[in-house]
Amino acid sequence: MFERFTEDARAVVVGAVAHAERTEAGKVEEQHLLLALLDRRADRASFALDALGLGEDGRKSVARALSEARRRGGLSRADADALSGLGIDLSEIVARVEEAHGAGALTGARTAGRGGRSRWPGLGTGHRPFARGAKDVLTGALRNALAHHDRHIGAEHLLLSLAARPGVPAEALADHGVTYEGVRRVLYGGGRAEAG
């Protein structure tokens, strides 16, 4: 499949790995792909984000929303609301876990255990496997390219895939007026798309 990726799409994948390494995540997750997309300029995905009103401040706000979700162990606000409906206060759980284990304990970052050894041996080598959700985004990008009769998989197909999948990245994008339908209209609809 990767032979069909454009240079821009490959740069997003490489950027996602770099984001995972920077945050010491054990795997490349969907949010790392979105962060790498937000870093890009002058490709079709960036054009779509700009057309939908997600400028520099909006990109920073999306990145903050992803960071907050990461602190919650990757749970979306919808997940937190569902837990709240069951009488479970996620913010209280996060506070207690961080009190006992340190700030960011639920982020999934590597931490040293006894004797200074990493909980995930071998991850200091730069190798980061892709989590199931991130693999699904890549597969979704292929499906989006095929559905639009595009010969190659571009960064825009990764954006479409992220916006279509339920979860934290789509939630963060939608909160900033970027939805699957909006991105699709900007890229393929031929007209000006309204945010949201």
What does this structure look like?
The chain has helices at 7-22, 30-39, 44-51, 56-71, 77-85, 90-101, 132-147, 155-164, 168-175, 180-188. The protein is 58% helix and 0% strand. The protein is mainly α and 196 residues long. Residues 110-125 and 191-196 have low confidence and may be disordered. It has 10 helices and no strands. The protein has a single domain (2-188), classed as Orthogonal Bundle (Double Clp-N motif).
Describe the secondary-structure layout:
Layout: H1 7-22, H2 30-39, H3 44-51, H4 56-71, H5 77-85, H6 90-101, H7 132-147, H8 155-164, H9 168-175, H10 180-188
Helix pairs in contact: 1-2, 1-8, 2-7, 2-8, 3-8, 3-10, 4-9, 7-8, 8-10
What's this entry about, in short?
Keywords: Repeat. This protein is mainly alpha-helical.
The name CATH uses for the topology is: Double Clp-N motif
Q: What does the largest sheet look like?
A: none
Q: What structural class do you assign from the helix and strand content? A: mainly alpha
Cα shape: globular
**Cα-based radius of gyration, to the nearest Å:** 18 Å
* Helix percentage: 55-70%
Count of DSSP H/I helices: 10
The number of domains is: 1
Extract low-pLDDT stretches: 110-125, 191-196
Provide the descriptors you would attach to this structure in a database record:
about 200 residues; mainly alpha; Double Clp-N motif; 10 helices; globular; disordered C terminus
